[in-house]
């Protein structure tokens, strides 16, 4: 599967924690991430991650383009709903594209955990 990892600044530590915990699961898949998130996760886990630009510099749009072109199977986007984001329109578009393309989307640590456990248990069917 092709999985995108995105995290707002205040959620990057949670993304690292998630990636460390599910390193073996993630290692079996092709991973994409926005720039800073990808760099941090790679540094802590050694996972191979294809990095896009930083989110505010167009990385969210790059991931959105991949979603629109059916090039991703799962998006884990640990969002910070309490902090205003200067690139909020890009974020909203990315979330909308996941709905339009029927791409599973985890926006918090617990939903990401459920999806990664399902993936590990073979319960995740990208054809649904």
List descriptors:
alpha/beta; five-stranded parallel sheet; globular
Characterise the protein shown here.
Helix content is 48%, strand content 16%. It has 128 residues and is α/β, with parallel strands linked by helices. Strand 2, helix 3 (35-45) and strand 3 (49-51) form a beta-alpha-beta unit. Helix 1 (12-21) packs across helix 3 and helix 4 (59-68) packs parallel to helix 5 (88-101). 32% of the residues are buried.
List the helices and strands and how they pair.
Blueprint: E1 2-7, H1 12-21, H2 23-26, E2 30-33, H3 35-45, E3 49-51, H4 59-68, E4 74-78, H5 88-101, E5 105-106, H6 109-120
Parallel strand pairs: 1-2, 1-4, 2-3, 4-5
Helix pairs in contact: 1-3, 4-5
Beta-strand content bin: 15-25%
- As laid out across the biggest beta sheet, the strand order is 3-2-1-4-5
The helix fraction, in percent, is 40-55%
Uncertain segments of ≥5 residues (pLDDT<50)?
none
Question: Total number of helical segments?
Answer: 6
| Secondary-structure class | alpha/beta
Distance between the termini: 14 Å
Shape descriptor: globular
Q: Residue-averaged pLDDT, rounded?
A: 93
Q: Give, in order, the helices and strands.
A: EHHEHEHEHEH
Largest beta-sheet characterization: 5 strands, parallel
Number of strands: 5
The rounded Rg comes to 13 Å
Brief digest:
The chain has helices spanning 12-21, 23-26, 35-45, 59-68, 88-101, 109-120, and strands spanning 2-7, 30-33, 49-51, 74-78, 105-106. By secondary structure, it is of the alpha/beta class.
């Amino acid at each position: 599967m092709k999985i995108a990892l995105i995290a707002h600044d205040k959620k990057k530590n949670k993304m690292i924690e998630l990636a460390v915990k599910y390193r073996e699961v993630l290692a079996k898949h092709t991973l994409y991430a926005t720039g800073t998130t990808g760099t941090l996760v790679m540094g802590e886990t050694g996972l191979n991650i294809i990095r896009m630009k930083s989110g505010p510099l167009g990385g969210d749009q790059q991931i959105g383009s991949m979603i629109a072109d059916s090039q991703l199977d799962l998006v884990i986007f640990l969002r910070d709903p309490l902090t205003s984001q200067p690139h909020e329109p890009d974020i909203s578009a990315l979330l909308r594209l996941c709905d339009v393309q029927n791409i599973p989307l985890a926006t918090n640590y617990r939903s990401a955990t459920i999806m990664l456990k399902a993936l590990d248990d073979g319960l995740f069917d990208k054809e649904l």
